[in-house]
Amino acid sequence: MPLPPLLIWCRLAVLGALLTTPPGGFAQAPLTAPPQDQGLPYTRSSQAAALAEIKEGITVFAGSRYGYVRGHRVRLDDTDLLRTEAISRAGDLYVPAAFAAVILSPALTPPPVPADLAPIADRWVYAPGELTAPATPKPDASVPTIVVNGRTFYAFSALARARSLTVSTHPRGLAFAGSRKDVIPTDAIRLDNLITLFDTPEKFADPDIATRAVPILARQGKWTEHAKATPEQLAILDGPETVWPTAPKADYDYTGLDTRLLGSNPPPPGVYPRVLFSPEDIPFLAARVKSTRMGRKSLIEMEELFKKSWWDPSTSDGAVFKKLYTGDLAGLEWDAAPGTPLSAYPQQFKGQKPGIANSHVAYVPECLTSMALYCLLTNDDARGRQVAAAVANYFKLREVLLDRWLEISDSEFGSTYVDERGGVVSMGGNGARTH
């Protein structure tokens, strides 16, 4: 069966992890994770402890694209999600107009998270417009401003005082506005923990906190202990982000590009498939596959393999497939002993005997993915609906593992912890060094 592109990328990722692991890294003694219930940075209780510090006010941090309003995470801007950050100038922070309106708004109660998304409420991010009251006044002319890339930013402190809020700041870049004074903690650990709220997938608010708090990173040490950097280079890294010039759109040259091969426009919400292609693209893709010798050969190979395994209820794969698409999930268990890292849980079921030759692949989801593609290309709607139900039920079973994975803190990666069945899990293998 042809390898799906996702499997190829996964193999490359594994190779990358092996190549970037320090020599002897896996041979070192496992580290013990710090207590997870004391509100320490990068532990399971860190977010709740940090939010408790700022649950009544508005908090922003220099360089972050988010703020916190009564403990809820809010973007600073409604439109530019990637570049609009709080800017530090002359001891004050400046925020864009959208967040300035939030600070001035008389009503700051965010709407509830939709009921069907309640499980991810702790990771929900609001748009500024969701917290702004209709009668929100505009910033007064006395509020200091700066202009960055043609956009006006407003002084956080002046905006907060216009609402009669008390402002407290910290030299490391935090600013808080609320009804209490000096809410920003002076205790080093509590302060570190509060700053980690402003970490984003793109960068850290303060990378040194992770080096202090995550055992595997503390053992590794700061990067400057392993690589040389001149004072001039460090100054560039600590300075503002470089704005690189880009070619104007007027200079774009599409000569020779067949835009028809880019596919159709994204379908309306709720219509699937939609990620790599849309329903409108399927006839073109099917014709393309069937017009080539390799494409026809692949379809025949896939059909024959599925007939001898997943589509034959008398086989092990066929019995699993029937249970998955009918929703009869009793007896489908993962073959993993207590203490197995979540990243090492097999992607097939206890007692299942794969009917298709394979090596180190996520067997069940890979087969279902290929089967779904086959059904789309051959217009097999009846079996396609079975595959869709099987995929949904498979990941319902997998969801509990995903939830447990998300519960693991950064401080536990590269360390050990005790799982729900009492097994000691070592996170030092499988490339699991950090989130």
Summed up, what is this model?
The chain has 435 residues and is of the alpha+beta class.
Walk me through what this model shows.
The protein is of the alpha+beta class. It is 34% helix and 11% strand. It is built from 13 helices and 13 strands. The strands form three sheets. A six-stranded mixed beta sheet has the order 7-4-3-2-11-10, covered by helices on one side. It has a four-stranded antiparallel beta sheet with strand order 5-6-9-8. A three-stranded mixed beta sheet has the order 1-12-13, with no helix packed on it. Helix 11 crosses helix 13. The chain is globular and about 75 Å long. 25% of the residues are buried. The N terminus and C terminus are likely disordered.
Largest sheet composition: 6 strands, mixed
Computed CA radius of gyration, to the nearest angstrom: 27 Å
| Strand residue percentage | 5-15%
Point out poorly predicted stretches: 1-26, 431-435
Ends distance: 32 Å
Given helix and strand content, the structural type is alpha+beta
The SSE string, one letter per element, is HEHEEEEEHEEEHEEHHHHHHHHHEE
Shape: globular
Count, helices: 13
- List how many beta strands DSSP finds: 13
Numbering strands along the chain, what is their spatial order in the largest sheet?
7-4-3-2-11-10
